[in-house]
Amino acid sequence: MASVCCFTSSLVPLHRPIHQFSSFLTIPNNKNTSATATATAIVPSTSMKNSKTVWIWTTTQHVMTSALERGWNTFLFSSPHQNLAHHWSCTAVAVIFPLFVGEGEILDGQGKRVASVIDVSTPEELERLRPEDEQSENIVVNLLDWQVIPAENIIAAFHNSQKRVFAISNSTSEAKIFLEALEHGLDGIVLKVEDVEHVLELKEYFDKRAEESNLLSLTKATVTRIQVAGMGDRVCVDLCSLMKPGEGLMVGSFARGLFLVHSECLESNYIASRPFRVNAGPVHAYVAVPGGRTCYLSELKSGKEVIVVDQQGRQRVAIVGRVKIETRPLILVEAKRDSDSQTVSILLQNAETVALICPPQCEALSKTAVPVTSLKVGDEILLRVQGGARHTGIEIQEFIVEI
């Protein structure tokens, strides 16, 4: 009987989450918490400001275990596989919340409807989809002829509704579209897969977005040396996003100290503003990318992701649209913190449009950034101090000397 209890005690009607989670994914200790809340990810980014819920639909135990290990514990079972719900509830590494897919609906273990399932295969069916017509608080849409535009239309139709809308996704790439469409995305997804890789990829996707809620620790550093360095191959990084004053990329010759290099968004008398571009430095330099990693500027290409950071340490993910490598005159800038005897450096193109970002208190002087052509010894700039030892861009603990 104990095994039956573990299977049924958590099967309760779903409710819209009324509390926030401090961490990325939380499995509440209270088994009476709704299945929706137990699988909710809080992802406070510019593209997904609301909480996102993930349900898993699979018949593969490896997928189930992998999902549980990553905090997703609500699973869907169709009629031929209902026996799996009982088996997994008794053998899983954590408590699972089983739901059962019926004809046009999803039920809990007591036969109570927790969601409606709507198949959409034509534009006419999509046009007839109305929030007020559905009795369930949760609506799962199955786009049989999957496209991006229907996802956007669904979001627009349910924008002012109190109902939570999910979409069935057969891959991580589909899930991303549903979670990001029209910037807001749907309330959640039903990931219907038999391959563990899709679970791993989706978790990595959420982890990257969750980073944006954390302020990056930046510190003041004082410029100690400036020297013209001759010619070198420098990299301009053009993003698929616009940057505003005070934003840029974290770049440096050493991973232990990355400088905040300003975008070309500032107006100039000699060249048009390019708020999508950062003239980031030579090919050897490190640049911060999602996941707490770095990569070489020479490794960036279209479709790669980088971290855009502002003066306060707020960060967001941006996609690289284009990379330009050209031979240009360079200037060497060295700096160090007052509390640190170790010097870090960066090489940048010697041009008026290339600038380093100042600490926030400089804003009172209307001084967001200092062009490298105007930089002086004693000026204060922003620096990101971190571990210097890296293996394929991942920070590791080992002895290292870089000069």
From TrEMBL:
Residues 52-206 form the 3-dehydroquinate synthase N-terminal domain. GO terms for biological process: amino acid biosynthetic process; aromatic amino acid family biosynthetic process. It holds the Pfam family DHQS_2nd. Residues 221-402 form the 3-dehydroquinate synthase C-terminal domain. InterPro entries: DHQS, DHQS/DOIS_N, DHQS_C. The keyword NADP does not apply. Keywords: Amino-acid biosynthesis, Aromatic amino acid biosynthesis. GO terms for molecular function: 3-dehydroquinate synthase activity; oxidoreductase activity. The keyword Amino-acid biosynthesis applies. PANTHER family: 3-DEHYDROQUINATE SYNTHASE, PTHR33563. This is 3-dehydroquinate synthase. It comes from Arachis hypogaea (Peanut). The lineage of its organism: Eukaryota, Viridiplantae, Streptophyta, Embryophyta, Tracheophyta.
